[in-house]
Write a structure and sequence with these properties.
The chain is an alpha/beta fold. Helix content is 57%, strand content 13%. It has eleven helices and five strands; from the N terminus they run E-H-E-H-E-H-E-H-E-H-H-H-H-H-H-H. It has a five-stranded parallel beta sheet, with helices on both faces. Helix 8 crosses helix 10, helix 8 packs across helix 11 and helix 9 crosses helix 10.
Length: 212
């Protein structure tokens, strides 16, 4: 059962999303809040699998908000809701650690699919952002990419797989029994070998190349 907490300043939106999710098999809404501080306390207490949050509540402090959520519940994923289709805003949110951005004009059944996929370790991003991120990778010869992936050490591959699942550096360090500094060092080498520049690019790349 996927346990979800809703965070949105609009009571009507929370009610509608709750109704959609609770009518789906395998999803249970275990709490909701209109305030971030209250939500963090709720998240720490309930330990949900997913926090479904209005993206407007993170604007300007995306990294801080998502880090606070992860500190309250290291294992939970963050999926953001928005009606804003601006690609740069979505990119900022994903770089900050969100596992997906769901556009509110989509159908209810698509939201259910997004929740399940994110909790299954996948990314959920709109086509425009996916196309933009993949455009920079599409010109690369497949054999060259295979060679670059083969150049990664076993430990570097472990780090890549965990980052692709949405784990923070702290989570990766704990999982692999290494320090956060060592994780950062591994990522620096990985970015260099794969010719990437961010966690978001690494996550998209790893899914595209089947490194999971």
């Amino acid at each position: 059962m996927i346990r979800v907490i809703l965070v949105d300043q609009h009571a009507l939106i929370r009610a509608g999303v709750r109704l959609i999710l609770e009518n789906a098999d395998g999803i249970n809404v275990v709490g909701e809040s209109e305030w971030l501080d209250e939500a963090l306390r709720l998240i720490a207490r309930k330990k949900p699998d997913l926090v479904l949050m209005n993206m407007e509540m993170t604007v300007g402090s995306e990294s801080k908000v998502i880090t606070a959520i992860r500190d309250a519940c290291p294992a939970c994923q963050v999926l953001l809701l928005t009606g804003d289709i601006e690609v740069e805003k979505h990119k900022t949110a994903m770089r900050a650690g969100a596992r997906g951005v769901f556009l509110t004009h989509r159908k209810p059944e698509v939201l259910i699919s997004a929740v399940k996929k994110v909790c299954d370790g996948e990314l959920w991003i709109n086509r425009s952002l996916t196309a933009e991120l993949l455009a920079g990778l599409s010109h690369r010869p497949e054999q060259h990419e295979n060679e670059k992936i083969a150049s990664l050490t076993a430990r570097e591959l472990e780090v890549v797989r965990l980052i692709a699942k949405g784990l923070t550096n702290k989570d990766v360090a704990s999982r692999l029994s290494i320090t956060e500094k060592t994780v950062r060092n591994h990522l620096t080498v990985v970015y260099s070998k794969l010719e990437l520049s961010s966690r978001l690019e690494l996550a998209v790349y790893s899914h595209a190349q089947g490194v999971n």
